[in-house]
Each structure stands twice: as structure tokens, then as C-alpha cells.
């Protein structure tokens, strides 16, 4: 017996008999059993091993495979899946079918069995697409090395653009779109020369004609290409940007291929996946909804070209460069303002106290009437404050079509991020801010504004306002110490960076409301503002929800809302959105007050505790696109 086993080992390729290996194993077991009795060392272990059921099963499989190799079976039919389908139909139509028929029906319906039958048919039909053309017998010595590339299209675009050399008429792959079909194949590269598409020579053709040939092919498409000899080595660095404007490739006559372009809206965060081309970058919109990138104009291209070509909406310069309201509007507003100040001066003076909110001896700074009227007034007239707080960072961010951003997660030991609320006058910015602070004054606090007006008897410096001389105030303006400031009735009012910093350094979350054109002043490395835009609901809902509310305008204190107020809010909101949308980290529609307040609380928590996209300059002060 032992001799028999050795013979098998020495000649591993010889075939085993009908009972084959299993028989040998049985003999071995018998041998071992005999050895167990005389108590030979290790025989016990070997005996249990050879008796193991898994080894027996494995050997059965092995024998089956051996038999299969010997018989080299061919499929009896090549339409097993069709047949199984027919069987299913037949069984279903049986009036009263047996349990066996039902079981067969269940088995045949199982997806893995259907897949198996379909695979069987593919093999049986020898359906091994694509059929490559035969290699020519004799190749001339000077023939360029060509590559045949076959791609299965499955209705998706190829993901590559082509260009024509105007002198030679040769067609080249201009670019391969990141994540597209050609890119995923790894077989086509920018610079490869296309010789044939589906057997058609393409030399001398217009790129559009080549595309037509390509588009006609269903299923597989075959390229004969002369590969580029030296593929450029790209050291791509990860780059994320926030779009500062809208872009629509369909409206851009200069894009090399509009279908390969990617549209985006201001505020979208884009991942730049390819900057090989200095003019046309490839990007994906985050969060990654598609695996395939699209073409977008590079910063250089946008800076260098006339903007009206690129933007679906005309570019809106910043308030620093151009005032927000037209001259006509300004004159109109100023006229109203003067008239009203005259009529209502007394009312405003006495109303100052009503708005100075305090609960349990905690003052809610920055809600004073004069301060708010000053801000509203400065918003409607030429805005001087932003100009002073608009150093190069602001200027460049607004002139740059993309702002580089990075993912930032506040370290628990860092100060909290400033929360800046923005919204049309009357939409409820102050109401929401006040409610948030009142929810937990130990956590949330406003910044104490500065003023040059004289303190009233009950007022304390540093509580309602920081009372300063005009000289000190001017000096602070000169040194860019204000986030925003303005003048009201001959007195200056402003919110300083120091006031915000004091709150943050005390470990609290500073919540300010700012005019939209001061947004860049708070988007700094130091304050790391999280900008929340308070949006009005649709006009009808605005009317319904504000039925019992009162508005304070430039010349009326707490009067019921009128229809023209709602229209003004809507119009103003539209203007703010068209100019500043790209800076909003979060948008809250202030419809139901309680609901909006809860949304605000959640957003503020997220801003502090969850990772957010922030300008790269906050983290790397030198970052600029
Ligand atoms: N969702 C809401 N439902 C009903 N009333 C609201 C809502 N939000 C705000 N209001 C009310 O609307 C009025 C105007 O709100 P608020 O004073 O907060 O405006 P604002 O946006 O701060 O404008 P401004 O900066 O001009 O003072 C207030 O009386 C406020 O209570």
C-alpha cells in the first residue's frame, strides 16, 4: 500500500482511477488504524486528520475536477437561460402543479442561478467580444508603434476631447477627463495620436466628424492610436476652492467642449483634480456626486479674459469698488431720511431705552436703537466703513473667481468662531440674535459697540457702549479697528474687532449682525467668522407670519408691517443674495420664529464642533490662487 502512495506522489500528473484518491485515502486510513493499535507515535493525529470531513469533501471536489478535465465537457446547448425562462412560463401556466414543479420554479427564479445560466450561455456561444483585426503578416520597419484600444461605451460619453493639428491635419487626444471612461481604461492619454476610429482613418477629418464616427458606435468603440512618446509627469496637488461666481459652460463660447464643461454656482465647493492645462482645469463639485470631472476655466483664464464671456450673470463688483445703490436710489433715500429725522427725532430718542434689552442684569449689547439706525442708514447710503476694513485680502477675494478653501475643524482649545448674521433689514436678524443670546447668555454674547455720543445717566461705559471721544474713534477707523461703523445724527457708532475679540477671549460665542458689505471684515484668520444668512420666506408666508409683528423703520418706531415693507425685504434680500451668496456658510429661512431660532442654534453648534470649509488663508496665511 505504501508503495502505491509513493507512486502517486512521484508521478503527480498521472490520473487517478474511478475511486481515485478517495480509495487511496481509505487505504491510508486502514494502514493508520493498524498502526494506532501497536501505538506508533503520531499515528493517532494522522488518523483523525485523514478522517476529517472537510478533507473528505475537498477530495470529492478534487475528483470531480479530475473527471471534468478527463472528459473535457462541451455545453449541450447554448441557450440555457432562454430555456429556463421558457420553463418558468410553462410552470406558471400549469393548472395545478406538483411540489416538485414549484421547487423547480423557485430554483430557476433565483438571480444567482439565472446569472450562472447566462454565463454558461456566453461561454457556450464563445461570445468573447471584441474581435480584434488580424495582425498584418509583414510590418514595415518604419511603422510607428500603434495601440489598439477597445472600450465598451455603455451609453456613457468617452470622457476625452480631441484636437486637430492645423498643419498636419492629424487628430490628437487633447485631454482625458478625470474619472471618465477613457481615464478609467488607462489606455488613452492626452497627446496620443488617433489614427483610426472603428476602422475609419481619421487623418484630415474635422474633429466634429471624428466625434460623429465615434458617436455612431454602439457598445464597443475601437481606436487605433500612436501613443505619445513621453507622457508629462504631473505632480497634482490637492486643491479645493469655493466658487465666487456662477459659471455655465453652455454660455461660454470659448470652452473647448461645452459638453465636457461643468456648471457651478457661487458658493459651491469644487475639488480641482487636474491643473495640467493652464487655461482649463478639471474639477468635481463637492460633495462628490459624480465620479467624472468637468472642465472649468482656470483662475488665469478668468482673470485674463473679459468677464462677460464667462459668467452667466454679470460680475458684481464689491462695495469698495462701487457703491451698492444707484445714485438715484441714494438721493431718494437720503431725502426720506432727512424728512423723517425731522419728524421723529423725539420718538427715536425716547425709543433708545426700549430696545436696550437686559435680562437678570445681563445686558444684550449691540441692540441699541441708534446703533441699528446708524447701520441701516449707512447701508442705504454710500458705505464708508467697508472701505477702511477692506485691505488687500478683501479686494483680491472678490476679484478672484475662486477662493482656496481647506477643511477646518476647530480645536477644543481654540477660541470659538464668530457668528455673523446677515439679512435684509426687517427680516428678523436682530430678533433671532436676541433670542439666541437669551437662550444662554453664559455661552452667547454680542459685541459692545463704540460710540462718540455722550453717555446717558444710567449707562455704563463698556456695557451699553464703549463711550469714546471722536479723536479716539477716528484713530480706530484709521487703524482699521472697526468691522463696520457709521454716523447717525452727528454721532459715530461702530463695532470694533477688539469688542468681538473680548467676547471670544472670554470663552464665549460672539454673535454679531453685520451689513453684508462688512462680510469680508469678519472672514479673517482671527475671527474665523461663520456667516449665517437670514432669508425671508416667500412673500405670502412673510405676510402671514408677520401679521402681529411690528417693524422699526428709519422714521417709525414699532408700527405694524405694511405690504411695501415685505416687498422691500424681498427686494433687498434678492440684492444681498446676488452679491454675497458665495460667502454664506449657512442659510436659514425665517418663517416660523421658533423654528428659525432652533435652526440657528443647531447651525451655531455645527460651526463650532463640525469640520467646515474655510478660506485657506486662515490656516496658511500665504495661500492665494
Ligand atoms: N419669523 C418671524 N415671525 C414673526 N415676526 C418676526 C419674525 N422674525 C422677526 N419678526 C419680527 O419682525 C420685526 C423685525 O425684526 P428685527 O427687528 O429682528 O429685524 P432686523 O432684521 O434686525 O432689521 P433691522 O436690522 O432693520 O432692525 C420684529 O418685530 C420681530 O419681532
Automatic annotation (TrEMBL):
Keywords: SH3 domain. Residues 18-73, 77-131 form the L27 domain. The keyword Secreted does not apply. The keyword Mitochondrion does not apply. Belongs to the MAGUK family. It comes from Xyrichtys novacula (Pearly razorfish). PANTHER family: MEMBRANE-ASSOCIATED GUANYLATE KINASE MAGUK. Residues 236-306 form the SH3 domain. This is MAGUK p55 subfamily member 4-like. It comes from the Eukaryota. Residues 148-229 form the PDZ domain. The lineage of its organism: Eukaryota, Metazoa, Chordata, Craniata, Vertebrata. Residues 416-605 form the Guanylate kinase-like domain. Pfam families: Guanylate_kin (PF00625), L27 (PF02828), PDZ (PF00595).
Amino acid at each position: 500500500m505504501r508503495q502505491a502512495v509513493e507512486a502517486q506522489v512521484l508521478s503527480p500528473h498521472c490520473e487517478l482511477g474511478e475511486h481515485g484518491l478517495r480509495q487511496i485515502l481509505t487505504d491510508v486510513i486502514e494502514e493508520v488504524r493498524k498502526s494506532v493499535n501497536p501505538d506508533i507515535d503520531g499515528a493517532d493525529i494522522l488518523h483523525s486528520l485523514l478522517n476529517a470531513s472537510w478533507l473528505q469533501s475537498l477530495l470529492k471536489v478534487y475528483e470531480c475536477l479530475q473527471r471534468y478535465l478527463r472528459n473535457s465537457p462541451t455545453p449541450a446547448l447554448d441557450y440555457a437561460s432562454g430555456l429556463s425562462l421558457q420553463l418558468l412560463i410553462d410552470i406558471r401556466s400549469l393548472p395545478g402543479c406538483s411540489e416538485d414543479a414549484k421547487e423547480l420554479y423557485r430554483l430557476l427564479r433565483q438571480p444567482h442561478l439565472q446569472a450562472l445560466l447566462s454565463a454558461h450561455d456566453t461561454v457556450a456561444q464563445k461570445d468573447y467580444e471584441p474581435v480584434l483585426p488580424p495582425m498584418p503578416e509583414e510590418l514595415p520597419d518604419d511603422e510607428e508603434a500603434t495601440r489598439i484600444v477597445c472600450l465598451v461605451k455603455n451609453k456613457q460619453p468617452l470622457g476625452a476631447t480631441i484636437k486637430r493639428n492645423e498643419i498636419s491635419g492629424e487628430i490628437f487626444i487633447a485631454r482625458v477627463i478625470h474619472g471618465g471612461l477613457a481615464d478609467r481604461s488607462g489606455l488613452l492619454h492626452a497627446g496620443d495620436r488617433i489614427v483610426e476610429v472603428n476602422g475609419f482613418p481619421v487623418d484630415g477629418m474635422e474633429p466634429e466628424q471624428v466625434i460623429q464616427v465615434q458617436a455612431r458606435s454602439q457598445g464597443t468603440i475601437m481606436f487605433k492610436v500612436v501613443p505619445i512618446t513621453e507622457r508629462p509627469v504631473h505632480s497634482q496637488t490637492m486643491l479645493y476652492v469655493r466658487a465666487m461666481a456662477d459659471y455655465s459652460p453652455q454660455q461660454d463660447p470659448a470652452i473647448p467642449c461645452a459638453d465636457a464643461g461643468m456648471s457651478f454656482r457661487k458658493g459651491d465647493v469644487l475639488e480641482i483634480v487636474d491643473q495640467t492645462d493652464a487655461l482649463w482645469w478639471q474639477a468635481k463639485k463637492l460633495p462628490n456626486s459624480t465620479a467624472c470631472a468637468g472642465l472649468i476655466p482656470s483662475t488665469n483664464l478668468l482673470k485674463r479674459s473679459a468677464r462677460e464671456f464667462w459668467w452667466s450673470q454679470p460680475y458684481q463688483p464689491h462695495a469698495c469698488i462701487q457703491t451698492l445703490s444707484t445714485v438715484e436710489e441714494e438721493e431718494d433715500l437720503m431725502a426720506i431720511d432727512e424728512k423723517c429725522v425731522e419728524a421723529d427725532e423725539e420718538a427715536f430718542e425716547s425709543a433708545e431705552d426700549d430696545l436696550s434689552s437686559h435680562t437678570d442684569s445681563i445686558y444684550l449689547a449691540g441692540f441699541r436703537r441708534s446703533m441699528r439706525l446708524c447701520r441701516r442708514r449707512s447701508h442705504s447710503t454710500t458705505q464708508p466703513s467697508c472701505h477702511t476694513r477692506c485691505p488687500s485680502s478683501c479686494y483680491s477675494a472678490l476679484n478672484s473667481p475662486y477662493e482656496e478653501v481647506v477643511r477646518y475643524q476647530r480645536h477644543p482649545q481654540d477660541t470659538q468662531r464668530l457668528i455673523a448674521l446677515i439679512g435684509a433689514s426687517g427680516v428678523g436678524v436682530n430678533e433671532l440674535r436676541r433670542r439666541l443670546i437669551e437662550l444662554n447668555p453664559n455661552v452667547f454674547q454680542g459685541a459692545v459697540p463704540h460710540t462718540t455720543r455722550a453717555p446717558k445717566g444710567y449707562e455704563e461705559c463698556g456695557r451699553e457702549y464703549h463711550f469714546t471721544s471722536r479723536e479716539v474713534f477716528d484713530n480706530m477707523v484709521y487703524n482699521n479697528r472697526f468691522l463696520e461703523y457709521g454716523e447717525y445724527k452727528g454721532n459715530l457708532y461702530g463695532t470694533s474687532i477688539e469688542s468681538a475679540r473680548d467676547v471670544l477671549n472670554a470663552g464665549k460665542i460672539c454673535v454679531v449682525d453685520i451689513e453684508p458689505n462688512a462680510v469680508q471684515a469678519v472672514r479673517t484668520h482671527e475671527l474665523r467668522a461663520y456667516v449665517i444668512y437670514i432669508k425671508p420666506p416667500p412673500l405670502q408666508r412673510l405676510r402671514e407670519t408677520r401679521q402681529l409683528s411690528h417693524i422699526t423703520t428709519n422714521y417709525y418706531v414699532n408700527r405694524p408691517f405694511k405690504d411695501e415693507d415685505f416687498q422691500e425685504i424681498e427686494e433687498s434680500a434678492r440684492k444681498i443674495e446676488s452679491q454675497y451668496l458665495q460667502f454664506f456658510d449657512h442659510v436659514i429661512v425665517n418663517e416660523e420664529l421658533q423654528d428659525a431660532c432652533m435652526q440657528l442654534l443647531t447651525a451655531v453648534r455645527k460651526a463650532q464642533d463640525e469640520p467646515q470649509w474655510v478660506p485657506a488663508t486662515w490656516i496658511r496665511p500665504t495661500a492665494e490662487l
